[in-house]
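Table 4 source record.
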Amino acid sequence: MSQSDQPITFYRLQACPFCERVARTLDELELDYSSRFVEPMHSQRNVVKRVSGKRSVPAIVDERTGVTMSESANIVDYLEKTYGAEGSERPDAAGATGASGDPSGGDE
């Protein structure tokens, strides 16, 4: 599977503990994903803003479910519910809550 064929795109920073938390969860759930490392300066993260509406990372875009979200706690919760033992059905194009992330500005 080529990088562009990965169903989950993960926007992150190097050495970001919140991003590492999401990466650990993706790896534990054995999910295929592509990482996109973004600009360290918050005001320059236009690629993240275009996909999630915010410049904060981590952020994911899940092509299987159509979900785009940010905030590490929300992402981990979503991944565990959708792809963990509880949600082991692994949806193809539907089946997620349709969440678009936490409306609060975020702490990450």
